[in-house]
Amino acid sequence: MLIIPFISIYTKDITDANYIRPIFAYLLVLAEFMWMIRKPYHDMVKTVGHFKQTQIGAWVEAIVNIVLSIILVLKFGIVGVAIGTLIATLIRTIELMYYTSKNILKRSVGYTFKRLLVIAIEIVLIVLIINVMPSIEITNYLTWAIYSLGVFAISSLIVFVIDWLVYKENIKTLIERIKNMKRTEKYE
Fold first, then answer.
1. Mind listing the pLDDT tens digit for each residue in 105-142?
2. In the predicted model, is pLDDT for residue 186 greater than 70?
3. Which residues constitute the domain of residue 93?
4. Which of 27, 43, 98, 153 allows an S-S link to 82, with CB 3.0 to 4.6 Å?
5. Would residue 172 count as lying in a domain?
6. Integer CA distances (angstroms), 13 to 3, 7, 125, 143, in order
7. What is the DSSP string of 78-131?
8. CB-side exposure of 164: number of CA atoms within 13 Å?
9. How many angstroms separate the CA atoms of 41 and 101, rounded?
């Protein structure tokens, strides 16, 4: 929702190529999203020293990324590379989620998939709500920044409300910890 308008402003006077590539932008955002989902699991594996146990998954990710990117770049260009990266990242993310759930956290992977389902619902709601709101014409960095603040506010509200409904006890615990940190800082 923010990348394409930004690129439109950034490349406004450039005519050598078409830089407005929504599918490419969406694929890159999805690949980055997958990377961010996987990061805590990857960090957990490194922290407990289980890198060797998951090394094959790292090789599979690299090979899938290279092979798919080479095959798909011929048909789809740079979009094919983004597709290859997204698929490889998705495979590695799922592998790390299963590994950490089973071998480190000792809990059902269903817990993780429930959290991903909640995130997916939040994303869909954010996109739907922002797309039905009256839009502003984004013609410069200032209007883009104003639009970005609106997207941020709406997104934050939606995430907070849904997380409050689904993870009420976790939110209460977090608020209590923050209060305790402030009390501790006050007395130090």
1. 999 889 888 999 999 999 999 999 998 988 788 899 99
2. no
3. 3-107
4. 27
5. no
6. 17, 11, 34, 18
7. HHHHHHHHHHHHHHHHHHHHHHIIIIIS-S-HHHHHHHHHHHHHHHHHHHHHHH
8. 7
9. 9
